[in-house]
Amino acid sequence: MSYLPNLFTTGAIRETPQKVIRKIVGEVTFTADTTTIIEIGAGRGEITKPLLHKAKGKQNLSYYAFEIDEEACQYLRKHLHALTVVNGSAFEFEKHIPPAAKVDYFISSIPLSFYKKEMIGPFLQKIKTWLKPDGKLIIIFSAAWLMPLFKKHLPQLKPYTFLSFPPYFMVVYKHKV
Question: Using 50, 70 and 90 to split pLDDT, how confident is the model at 8?
Fold first, then answer.
């Protein structure tokens, strides 16, 4: 996948580093109950594929992959059949999942730095209303200036830094009711 031509759509200049993907996969635990995952900014499945591999054999998995790039959506539909692919805005995720759904994991790699702060706060609050108790929101990003905004809206988040080019940051928020 060529990243630079789609920079202002996807926000990515390179594929996600493996150490970041391993950390994300390590944060996800599959239980005997139904597990619901919403991945926003799924791209061509760099994070999706290892998560589906970890979930192999799990019958009660609901996996929604949101991606704005139609070409990436076509790739996901062709190669990864165990998920629902939505070509649309992550900011409207609730229009594409069952109304009573409670989410175990939101995984976001969308370029939140491209959006106004006035949009990000309400988006994070909306995500929190869909999370199950002890559900997790995992966000990866490269814009360090977003950290204060995340800390404001996601109390008790755990921050991680990955030295790479560009540097990657990750926050993990565990929802408490």
Answer: very low
**Helix (H), strand (E), coil (C) string for the chain:** CCCHHHHHHHCCCCCCCHHHHHHHHHHCCCCCCCEEEEEECCCCCCCHHHHHHHCCCCCCEEEEEEECCHHHHHHHHHHCCCCEEEECCHHHHHHCCCCCCCEEEEEECCCHHHCCHHHHHHHHHHHHHHEEEEEEEEEEECCHHHHHHHHHHCCCCEEEEECCCCCEEEEEEECCC
Domains of the chain: 4-174 (3.40.50.150)
pTM: 0.90
CA atoms of 108 and 7, how far apart (whole Å): 16
Torsion of CA 36, 34, 125, 6, to 10 degrees: 0
In angstroms, the CA 140 to CA 6 distance is 18
Q: What tokens were used for 58? A: 């799990």
* Integer Cα distance of 59 and 66 in angstroms: 21
Both tokens of residue 9?
């759509």
Q: Using one digit for the tens of pLDDT, what is the confidence trace for 57-68?
A: 888 999 999 999
Instruction: Specify whether the CB–CB gap between 107 and 24 falls below 8 A.
Output: yes
